[in-house]
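#struct-queue
[09:14] JT: dropping the first one here, sequence first, then the structure tokens:
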Amino acid sequence: MGSLGTGIQHAIEGATWDSHGMVAIVDAPVRAYLETHRTELPVTAETLCTTWLAVGAGLLAISFVTCTFGARLTWVGWGACSVAVVWAATTGPARGIACAVTGRAWGIPSIFALRGVGTRRG
């Protein structure tokens, strides 16, 4: 993979995510959900969360750069799954608000990921 891959791996392993405020509305339920549902997997919840974030960032970049159907479809699936995880892990009256915040947090980068969808190319 080379030095770039090694550098990225070290950056991800050494990264800490200190979630406060609006970020915690999305981050805390995702972390709680992954911690609860990882019991049969040979991986930590932290690794799952880091992978979840890396996949989302990668899909955003690939969707923006390539404008391919598959990347965009997977980006939409990733966002829908993110909202579903927040729904499942949030309880009480905060559930709707948490899902709305998650949808907005995913929707704003979707402007870039899905640019050009629905426009005709002649």
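[09:21] JT: and here's the second one, same format:
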Amino acid sequence: MPKKPSRRSGGFARMLQSLGPAEETGGEFVPSPATAGLLVDGDGEAWVLTKHPLDARMARRLMRRADVVIIGDGAGDVLRRVGTAAQDREAAWAEVEDRLGREDHPIYSAFRGRSEDGRRLLYVEQSC
């Protein structure tokens, strides 16, 4: 039987050494609203978000009942406020429903939020 080649050739270590040090980007890390637990919308309103994502059933219920619905595209870089009309909410739900909590990309995660004056928010964040 032929002898197997040695797996300890050091190829991976040599490849890593050839890369050199990583370049500094100079930018600071800015967490998404869901990661930070705080969302400040376009009107300057602050919303405190829950730590854990909602399941699809709770998100669907809150989509209909929330005072404000915001979708955060690109991990919250672009915030889109959804209108209060039933057809606006249904269209928004149709957009996110199939990807809510899934492993397919893009992923949507839903979070409950509250304002200082007690209004309810549904925040749906898109991530990759």
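[09:30] RK: nice, looked through the second one.
[09:31] RK: The mean pLDDT is 86.
[09:31] JT: good to know. Residues 38 and 48 are 5 Å apart (CA to CA).
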